[in-house]
Amino acid sequence: MRIVKLTADAKKDLLNSLLKRSPDNYGQYEAAVAEIVAAVRERKDEALFEYTQKFDRCKMDASHLRVTKEEILEAYGQVDGRLVEVMKRAAENIRAFHAKQLRNSWMDLKEDGSMLGQKITPLEVSGVYVPGGKAAYPSSVLMNVIPAKVAGVGKIIMTTPPGEDGKVYAGTLAAADIAGVDEIYKAGGAQAIAAMAFGTESIPKVDKITGPGNIFVALAKKACFGHVSIDSIAGPSEILVLADETANARYVAADLLSQAEHDEMASAILITTSKELAQEVNLQVVALMENLSRKDIIAKSLENYGYLLVADTMEEAVEAANEIASEHLEILTANPYETLAKIKHAGAVFLGEYSSEPLGDYFAGPNHILPTNGTAKFFSPLNVDDFMKKTSIISYSKEALEAVHEDIELFAHSEGLTAHANSVSVRFE
Questions:
Q1: What pTM was computed for the model?
Q2: Pairing relationship of beta strands 106-109 and 115-122 according to DSSP bridges
Q3: Is 327 among the residues known to form the active site?
Q4: Of these residues, 238, 261, 316, 327, which one is catalytic?
């Protein structure tokens, strides 16, 4: 990894480099995605099955599209029993964390007879996309589905691509069953997103689509936004470790590698006030990489987006961390809580040397679906609110309206909207 002095120019170059990884920079694929979305919207199942055969090399029809209870039972038999128990424990942690996010409807009745309130209602149908093959992550099934279940969503459907044999990855099915998915369909790629966004003869239309995927899935979600709500258009994974001289270099290196293995475009960054730590982390990265199964991917990731930044002060380091607004931020300093108080922007923060990032990916409970590419400055992790909508409630008595009707009429007239003004004034003629 490159060791770089943290300067204004270095920070600017880094930010520009990271932003190039955004799905917004892959416009060359948008036409192909738009064609797929339009075909599925128009021809529904027929187009869905054509694309399934083309891209997944699987002949599909309506009678085999939906995963059966027998297939789910078969999947449990193919998954390590210990892993099933771990997934169940993780599910409980995720459920408990998200239950604390629930909010209630409220009404505020005043003495003048006016009443204002907010009614909170869960979505009726939510859809989750789960990648297939080597990119199948059962942990993401839990993270997408459980907040929707906690929110009280009426029906949750899932789409995931089949293999050439027409089967779905067993771990995905087991996780979906544990999380409480209602219906599972064998469909992948942009065509699955379009099917959920517009509905087909076999797949119901949903109100919201969440879940990770490749660039075609991300662009399909972008294309369908407005017809359906989405979680976000996520970019490649990223980790930033903020450390001082007290940090354990081997732990830091291991944590950087944990995200670099996701993707050749993943970023792994250390910002430290200790040049000696940066040098030791670099040595540890090289040593640890040799024993990792995805070392070729890691090498590319670190070559392109791996940085060891050395700052003069912790204040400068924190300022840079806030500008980067990383998906995952680890704080490995002598007093991590003191450093945390200065952090404004991050998807998830991990405090102390025993809070490594995979704790959040798999088990602790907070959601691992997080804002990327600097969007933590204005986006939040996936949460219960994402599966609920809010309706404003307004009720005024005659006396309450009479006290303010001239104010409303004046406002309406100032905007040239005389019918608005008349709608109020007619009640007091």
A1: 0.92
A2: antiparallel
A3: yes
A4: 327
